Write a sequence for this structure.
């Protein structure tokens, strides 16, 4: 038997507050095996809350722990089954450092996951002398812990999407808690069916407490929210509306260019084509962000394409309505006024805005937007681009959600 002094040294090395080392064994080519047991003799019955120390059965298991001095370390743990003297039924004692069905300690899982999120499975497996499969299991089990949790205190939900395969119209839906600025889930498809399945899983308690849902201009989202979230107001996301206005502005820019190309008069043609050249980003930019060169470009455009410049002005006016902190009523009046002025310049955008008017106006109440979603999407794109050896959607989802929700 090892001496008390030896065991104390091991206790200090493993530093697991709930456990004490009873014995140890060093096995060549395998590692260090520490025999540990719970310091507490008594454990609490999960049924009645009374404590008991009446042994029912011993359950010895070997679990992997963090390595020490380049040796693999295993804990031989006896998770006792005790019999409750009150309700007369057996129960297993709880050990914080170790989940019931898992063959590794919580702290090993934390370390492995933290490292995988910064590098990749292959390297981490190698570093810890684990197989890639074992690392994947650790990730998947931690993820399933997260997955069973329902969204807590969700009031403002954002529904956006991210292209799964770049360039293809293959989108996955990203659900975001707009207050905590974290994604709640990522769904493989942005279909009603996919979203319905996810919302139903959350249950009515979660759905009923949602107050606002910010969506892009997609009627499938709208009808689903109206159907499943009785207390939620649908808010059209301002950035998506702005995008439509910008797109229509760009259509006009292309049309000016096309008209220029068709001109027979060479001087006229050169003037128009030179003027329209490199104007795309000047036109899309906010007025206050233009540099001197870009301002000159717009002046040049005023001469050759007055309609385009008029549209630029209207686009900026539109943006300022959404940027200002004016009241709901004043904003409503300004928007109505804008629609009148813009009708002949932005027929498509005006049509969309009128169709979604009921969802655009609530924006001016709380100014809820999906602004945060952009940052999240950028991070997701980075995860996707790096690939990390993930070939399928499930792995992408797992890694993405862990990287936002796993607290290191
Ligand atoms: Zn009991």
């Amino acid at each position: 038997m090892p001496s008390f002094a030896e065991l104390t040294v091991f206790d200090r090395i493993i530093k697991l507050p709930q456990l004490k080392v009873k014995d140890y064994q060093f096995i060549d080519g395998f590692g260090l095996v520490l025999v540990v047991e719970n310091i507490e003799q008594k454990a609490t019955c999960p049924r009645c809350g009374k404590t008991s120390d009446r042994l029912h059965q011993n359950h010895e298991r070997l679990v992997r722990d963090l390595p020490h001095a380049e040796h693999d370390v295993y804990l031989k743990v006896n998770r006792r089954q005790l019999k409750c003297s009150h309700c007369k039924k057996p129960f297993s004692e709880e050990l914080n450092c170790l989940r019931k069905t898992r063959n590794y300690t919580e702290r090993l899982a934390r370390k492995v996951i933290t490292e995988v999120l910064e590098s990749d499975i292959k390297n981490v497996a190698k570093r810890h002398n684990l197989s890639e499969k074992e690392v994947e299991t650790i990730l998947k089990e931690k993820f399933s812990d997260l997955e069973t949790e329902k969204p807590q205190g969700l009031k403002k939900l954002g529904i956006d999407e991210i292209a799964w395969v770049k360039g293809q119209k293959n989108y996955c839906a990203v659900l975001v808690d707009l207050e905590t600025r974290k994604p709640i889930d990522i769904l493989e498809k942005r279909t009603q069916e996919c979203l319905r399945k996810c919302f139903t899983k959350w249950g009515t308690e979660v759905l009923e407490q949602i107050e606002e849902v910010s969506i892009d201009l997609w009627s499938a989202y709208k009808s689903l929210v109206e159907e499943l979230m009785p207390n939620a107001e649908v808010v059209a996301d301002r950035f998506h509306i702005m995008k439509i206005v910008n797109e229509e502005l760009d259509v006009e820019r292309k049309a000016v260019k096309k008209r220029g190309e068709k001109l027979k008069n060479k001087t006229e043609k050169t003037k128009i084509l030179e003027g329209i050249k490199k104007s795309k980003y000047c036109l899309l930019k906010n007025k206050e962000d233009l540099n001197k060169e870009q301002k000159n470009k717009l002046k040049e455009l005023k001469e050759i394409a007055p309609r385009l410049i008029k549209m630029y002005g209207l686009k900026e006016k539109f943006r300022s309505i959404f940027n200002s902190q004016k009241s709901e009523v004043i904003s409503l009046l300004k928007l109505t006024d804008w629609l009148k002025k813009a009708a002949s310049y932005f027929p498509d955008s005006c049509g969309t805005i009128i169709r979604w008017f009921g969802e655009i106006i609530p924006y001016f109440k709380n100014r809820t937007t999906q602004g945060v979603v952009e940052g999240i999407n950028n991070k997701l794109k980075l995860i996707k681009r790096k690939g990390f050896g993930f070939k399928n959607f499930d792995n992408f989802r797992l890694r993405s959600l862990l990287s936002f929700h796993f607290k290191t």
In short: The two ends are 38 Å apart (CA to CA). The longest strand covers residues 19-27.
